[in-house]
Amino acid sequence: RLDDAIEACWECLKVNPENVDMLFILGWTHTRKGQFERALLYFQQYLEARKRQEKSGFNLLILDFWDATSLVYNYLSLCYKSLNLINEALGMQRKATTQQPYNTVFWKSMAMLNELNRNRLGVQQSLFGAVDFGVADAEVFENLMQVAMQNFRELLTKSAPFVAGLAKSEPVLADFGEAKPAIEQPLTDAGI
User: Fold this and answer.
1) pTM for the full model?
2) Each residue of 106-116: pLDDT tens digit?
3) Which of 3, 16, 56, 91 is most buried, by CB atoms within 10 Å?
4) How far is residue 112's CA from residue 117's CA, in Å, rounded to a whole number?
5) DSSP structure string for 53-85
6) Whole-angstrom Cα distance, residue 160 to residue 43?
7) Phi and psi at residue 46, in whole multiples of 5°?
8) pLDDT tier for residue 66 given thresholds of 50, 70 and 90
């Protein structure tokens, strides 16, 4: 069926090579087929055709009523990610999120790409972006909790020698109650 859709799009493009609807569908179908390099080409052609059409003015194509540009950026991001081009994927995802900040999936995708790029601050900023725009769901809050726990563990590990020095001079850990095991574990892991 995807091949039929591709063939039908090509027939339409013979009549109007600037048909953004068909360029979008070609990009989408190639993405579905796992042909990410080809999908990239069609999505980029979509963006170029869209720019030319905006400059020329009036146009009655279907996507004029529903601009798919943010989706195109999201799909470009997916294609780049699939080709292991994470920085390019992040750039496209930023564009998608900027155009459509009320889309939770876009913020989650941005957080995931930052995680792949080992950028914990970027992950946190992406997740807080969803919160700021009021579109955070349970998964966003769960991921924020995980980031907070990672930050807390890292802080404890870095401060372990200092805390150990205090613990030897004063019974500091006794004051932490139920948090005591969580604080003692990094100390134990650090051999203190």
Assistant:
1) 0.75
2) 999 999 999 99
3) 91
4) 9
5) HHHH-----GGGTS--HHHHHHHHHHHHHHTT-
6) 50
7) -55, -50
8) low
